[in-house]
Each structure stands twice: as C-alpha cells, then as structure tokens.
Write a structure and sequence with these properties.
5-stranded parallel β-sheet, alpha/beta, two-stranded antiparallel ribbon, 531 residues
C-alpha cells in the first residue's frame, strides 16, 4: 500500500492530489493557453468547491514564456490601486527580463514609461479626484494596448473577487475599467475571476450601460459530478487497495456530498486508517466511515459552521431552508436555479440537498426554529407530533409491543403503520449519528403516516371522529408544502394562493385538534417504556 497520503486537507491541491474535472482542465488550457481569441470567465461556486485549485492547475507549469500570467488574490489587497500596482509590478519584471525585436523597442520604451508612472509612485493616487482617476485609468488602458502591439498575451486571474464590492469604492468607473480591459479589441487580455457570488451580485446597483458581468462567460462550480466521484473512489482502490462498499459510498456521500474539500478530508482519514491497520499487521480490516466522521472530522464541522455564518451574512439562509427543508413558500424557480448554479444545493432522491445530507439534516434543521418562515405549518407539525406522543403508550399497550429502547418502540410503531424502510433511511442515519430519537427528527410526512396508519383506533377522535378521507387531501398538500427532506416534493413553488390554501388547512387542524389535546399531558419519550 502506498504510504504517501495524497488527500490534502485545507491546502490547494496539485499533481496526484488534484482529482476530477479532467475535461474542464483540458478545455481551459486550450481556451487560455492555445487560443489567440481573448476570453473572460467568471468562475462562481461555494467556498472550498475547488475553484482556486482548478485554476492554478490550469496554468501550473503550462504558461509559455511568451505569455504574461499573473494571479492576484483580492483578499490580500487593501485598495483598488494596490490591485493594479501588484499586477503592473509583475508585468514590469516580466518586460525587464524579456527580449524584443528591434522594430518593437519603441513600444517597449513607451510601455516602461507608462508602467513606471504607477509602479514607481511614492504614494497611491487619490482616485476619487477626477483628474487623477483619468490619468490612472488611461495609463492602465495604454499599458495593455502596448502589450498587444508587442504581441504579448496577458492572462490575469483575480481570486476572491467578492471583495471587489468593498475595494471598488468608486463603483461604476472602477468596474468599467475592468470591463474595458477584459473586452476591448485593442487589447489581448484573457481573464478569470473567482468568486462565491455572481458578478451581478458583486456589482450590485452599479449603473453601467454594459456591466462587467455582460462581457464574461460564467463557469458554475457545483461540486463533483459522477465521473469525478468515481475517480475519487478509483484513487482509493488503485493507490491504497481499498474498494469502497456501497454502504461506504452512501455514508461518504451523506457526510461530504459532492464537495471536493469534504471528500478530501474523508479520503485523507480513510487512508490514515488503512495505514494504521497495516502498521498493526491486521490482515483484514473494515473502514468505519461513521467513526472517522465522529472522531477525525472536526474540520468538516467547522466548515459547516462557517457556511451557516456565510448564509446568514448573505441573507441566503432562509431561502435555502425553505428550498431543502420547507415550507417552500416565497421561493421562485429562479431562486432554486441560482442556488444550484452557485453549488449550494443539488437534486437528490426526489428532493434538494444543501452541500450534504448531513449538513441539511443537522445544521440547517437546527436553524429552522429560529426563522419566522411559516408559523402555522410549523405549529401544525408540532401539534401532530404531540398527538402521536400522547397515543404511543396506548398503541404499545394494545399491541403488546416489547422494546428495549425508545427508538426500538418508535420504529416498531412506524413499521406497523406500513412506512417503508427506504423512506426512513435518511432519518435512521441522522438518529444514529446524533444519538437522537425518531419522534424528535421525523418529518411531517412520517408523522402523518403514523396518524393515518392508526386512524380509526387512536387518532380520529382528535379530528371529531371524521373519516380519513376528509383530511387526506389536506394532509397531502401540507406535506408537499412542508417539502421534507426524506420524501418527494413538487417542483413548482407555492404561490400566494397556494400558501393561503395550505394555511387554511393548518388552521383547521390546529383548531380541531387543540380542543382534544388541551386536556392531555404530553409524555416524555423516556416514559414510553414504563408500564
């Protein structure tokens, strides 16, 4: 077994550690290194989705000497002036060590003169002054025009471009200068910006006749596709002789989703565990993915916490929760498409998942009660769960259910209600990892199925002894509106009329059940096992 652990935690990856996106890598090398037609691309995606590593691997040891390439990280820049000073200082060094034909030396002389006006300045200019801004921007445009005359291709990469919102204090003219550099036919500039948000969002309300986003193609980084994930498993198989079982793959997907960073963390710890088995001389071994996550993956949980803070800061949290957990009200199809393109959510098993199933079921669900999303539907869910809790001891007694734990009892009742094992799988995984109970984490769909499964014997009395047919359609619409993780949902979001309809059903259920439930004591789940 290979001793080196190629799975990197945290840092940028290259060489054998760079996994996936092979076709895209080839495409970018062709578009940026082989083509003579300038191109500008905005690479957009979730933090740690591999954007920077990808771009650096495009140009790693691949840039010809005839090309000026510069990577600029906005997170290290304090001002708009510093961005261009850094780029042009690097260009000045490049020009100094390049050789030119005699007939082009006059352009070289003029270029050096323009560069010196910016790079040799003793202090940064006051760009808010019209005169100084005009001189500054004209110099930059002239510099890139001279580069084209010298037949020098320029490739500029601007990482952490989200910070442009703060660094471009003059807004319109400073975004416009970037737009000109990226699109003017008198220049030969190939450009890439890397950001978590769309360029349109970063520009905000900047008043441009033609926005920066209007001259850039967009590359959405959505996490690994199936081919990339298969390459991840192939590395474990070919380099470390470990074949992931279907159960392993299911758990890896549960914790890491499709995000390269999270997959790399799990991959690193799997390899470490394999090495540990080998050092102990164990002939056969079984990697425990759940144990790896519990014991070794603090970094994943820290990343998840950072995502929650980021979603809150960007005012995305409520919309994301509405999409992946529900209720899906106040959400448009464009909202869903935007979050899919940003790599925040993806389709899975008839629903939507944010980053990973674990993150969706644990981190996002924990935030649900803190957000004023849809009071009546949340209240309906709570009151229906309380009804199930009240009747659980009665169901246990009538059917003589014997159980060693609260979860054994609750799962037995669920099975008696004919709820499929498949629909329970995500809930079971969550319970196992969080040491929780079924009733605490079950969706409204499972709650309603229990009620329907024991309707005539135990639950119809809470609904004025009416037949289940009177509530079947209402329950179905509430489930769809709630859009629980573990069951299917409608693709179409609720409009105002649809929301009002479901709201009326919720109020009806709350009113009709509250009368009967008010006289009942809600038992603690730990008391279920008592006689």
């Amino acid at each position: 077994m290979e001793k080196e652990n190629i799975f990197i935690i945290g840092g940028q990856v290259k060489g054998a550690s760079f996994i996936g996106r092979r076709k895209l890598l080839e495409k970018y090398r062709k578009d940026f290194l082989e083509s003579s037609i300038p191109k500008a691309v905005s690479i957009v995606g979730l933090s740690r989705s591999g954007k920077t590593s990808f771009v650096k691997n495009v140009f790693e040891n691949s840039v010809p000497e005839s090309v000026f390439y510069h990577y600029c990280d906005f997170s290290t820049c304090k001002s708009y002036y510093q961005i261009w000073n850094e780029v042009l200082s690097a260009l000045s060094d490049y020009i100094e060590f390049s050789e030119f034909d005699t007939d082009k030396l006059r352009y070289v002389s003029s270029l050096k003169e323009k560069l010196a006006k910016i790079t040799d300045a003793e202090s940064s200019p006051d760009l808010s002054d019209d005169c100084q801004w005009i001189k500054f921007s004209n110099n930059i445009k002239a510099i890139f025009k001279y580069l084209k005359k010298l037949e020098i291709k320029a490739i500029l990469v601007f990482d952490e471009f989200d910070r442009a919102k703060d660094l471009f204090v003059l807004k319109t003219p400073q975004f416009a200068l970037f737009r000109t550099i990226f699109s003017d036919g008198d220049m030969s500039v190939f450009a890439i910006t890397i950001s978590r948000r769309k360029i349109q969002t970063i520009e905000g309300g900047v008043l441009l006749s033609s926005s920066l986003s209007g001259v850039m193609d967009v590359e959405h980084f959505k996490g690994f596709d199936e081919k990339d994930i298969n390459e991840f498993y192939s590395v474990l198989s070919e380099k470390y002789n470990y074949e992931c079982s279907a159960d392993d793959k299911s758990k890896i997907h549960y914790y890491a989703g499709r995000l390269p960073f999270l997959l790399s963390i799990l991959g690193h710890n799997i390899v470490d565990m394999l090495h540990s088995f080998e050092e102990k001389g164990e002939a056969t071994f079984k990697v425990d993915i759940d144990k790896i996550f519990r014991d070794k993956c603090k970094t994943i949980n820290e990343y998840y916490e950072a995502c929650i803070k980021s979603f809150l800061n960007e005012k995305y949290l409520q919309k994301i929760i509405c999409i992946v957990i529900g209720p899906k009200f106040g959400i448009t199809r464009q909202d869903i498409d935007d979050f899919i393109n940003l790599g925040y959510i993806y389709d899975f098993d008839g629903g939507y998942v944010c980053i990973s199933q674990y993150f969706t079921e644990h981190n996002l669900s924990a935030k649900l009660s803190e957000l004023p999303i849809w009071e009546n539907i949340i209240s309906t869910e709570k009151i229906l769960k309380n009804i199930v809790k009240v009747e659980t001891p009665n169901i246990k007694k009538k059917y003589g259910i014997s159980a060693c734990s609260v979860n054994d009892l609750e799962f037995e009742i669920v099975h008696m209600a004919n709820i499929s094992q498949k629909s329970l799988q995500p809930t079971m995984t969550f319970i196992r990892n969080e040491n929780s109970t079924l009733y605490k984490v079950m969706s409204i769909a499972i709650t309603i199925k229990i009620i329907k499964g024991f309707w005539g014997e135990f639950f119809s009395k809470y609904f004025d002894n009416k037949p289940i047919s009177d509530f079947d359609m209402k329950f179905t619409k509430i489930i769809r509106a709630r859009n629980g993780i573990a069951h299917g949902h409608e693709d179409e979001c609720l409009n105002e009329a649809g929301k009002n309809e479901v709201d009326s059903y919720c109020r009806e259920i709350i009113e009709i059940t509250a009368k009967r439930l008010s006289s009942k004591k809600i038992p603690d789940e730990n008391d279920f096992l008592k006689n």
